TrEMBL record:
May nick specific sequences that contain T:G mispairs resulting from m5C-deamination. Keywords: DNA damage, DNA repair, Endonuclease, Hydrolase, Nuclease. This is Very short patch repair endonuclease. It comes from the Bacteria.
Amino acid sequence: MMSGIRSRNTVPEIRVRRLLHRQGYRFRLHRGDLPGTPDIVLPSRRIAIFVHGCFWHLHQGCRLARVPGTREDFWRAKLTRNRERDEAAIAKLRALGWRVLVVWECYLRGSKDDAELAGALSMWVEACDSYGELSEASSAGDC
């Protein structure tokens, strides 16, 4: 059942939080006063981080984001609404002067070790512009 799907404190989210904390970054979780309720917020740097599941947030071109074959109309509409809501929240955050990073599930899976992920996160936090994504299709150097 979908009621068993957690939206907070997921395994990928906890992994990102652990790595950020290890690097000395301090953050707040699930700030409801910000558009989209970002998973991780670094308030002093005005950075909002979303950790998205590829299926639930319809990651374009990702092998993990397949629409189920049963009740396809329902799922396509639901997942498209999720994606549109994400895009609106990111646009609002950027308009408010926040930097936004989306870390996709596909990036956290696979052969990425903690050191590689920590380096990519740190590089983005320290150097990148107002928006970025870490996904299977991007490299650690993308800003």
